[in-house]
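Hi Y.,

Following your request, here is the sequence exactly as I used it, all 399 residues.
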Amino acid sequence: MSLPLCYCTNVHACRAAADVPRMLDTYAVPVRRLAGFEIAVGLWLPAAAVAEVLATAGGGAGIRRALEDRGLSCHTLNAFPHGDFHGRRVKERVYLPDWADPRRLDYTLASAALLAELLPAGAEGSVSTLPLGFKLLPQREGFLDACTVQLLAVARRLADLRVETGRTVRLAIEPEPFCALETTAETLRFFARLWAAADVAGCGAAVREHVAVCYDVCHQAVEFEDAAAAIGSLVAAGIRIAKLHVSCAIQLDDPADARARAALARHAEPRYLHQTFARTADGRILREIDLTAGLAVAPPEEWARATCWRTHFHVPVDAERIGPLGTTRADLRAALAALVTHGLDPHLEVETYTWPVLPGRPPGDQVATLVDGLARELTATRDLVAATAMAATAGAQLP
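Below is the corresponding structure, written out as tokens. Let me know if you'd prefer a different format.
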């Protein structure tokens, strides 16, 4: 790992440029102090805040100084949520505007321009984004073609940005359950399509250099994908993994366990979407768009007889278990090992944005609770990365 480990600030509410120094002082600096080692921040700013920064003379330089003055750096931005990610109900709205909409292009290019100003000298950057759109929302005719046209425009602009600034910024498309790109197989097919279109348009080199993948370990675990095989197939296809989200999903090990299902039901909440999948004894995958208390407490017979459930609810990455529930931390270990196997060094970003909606959070100082939790996640990830590297050197299995 050549860059500082970072955490994504989409866990903090941000609605304006002035919120950035505040969240650095309230959260990021105390997290670094408690963790006891150098960290970076993966900033998330909604479209309105990015536009505000770029419209203000010296706005980007001001955020860079705010980072430097606090001993922090930024190598990656999260440009997935376009609007308020901390509203009362986010759910499927987080996928709007989609990649056929010019507003998505504008927000992404603005985010890339901002990141070019924030990057430390000699560092390369990534901007993660949604996987085109959400399958269950209405899409315009020729949706994939429209997305492709805009992605080619991004690649051309990022190539120009490198010439103008000397800074390399890549777009990292992040597959997610129920999205246009949710499985690794769908991602492979789309990149083949994108590259073919880029070659026809004369920008194949720019697209291959500047359009990449953000591999979210939680998302692909919910799909019951094998992390090592998924990462290996992306590498074999020549698709760059510019960013890896260090994240874990909830796992219901025994769907017949009523106590564990009751614990899962407490994770049904109104803000975020929690796609829930189950694997049957014969290997079929059952799918629900969102976790509900009813699904957990009184599941349909086929769900009750499944061998395992997984829910897209990002849980602390240092946790092997959460009470009677398991987590997909084994998939995280496998993903990190695959990075070592293939000699990859993407931006590593801990992304547990669900801390504010985790059930059973202790009463009291919520700032201190969050700072402590983020520091534990970063420390555990640092240790896991180190153990992965040592195991690979020794040819051993991870504990």
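The chain has a mean pLDDT of 96.

Thanks again,
Q.
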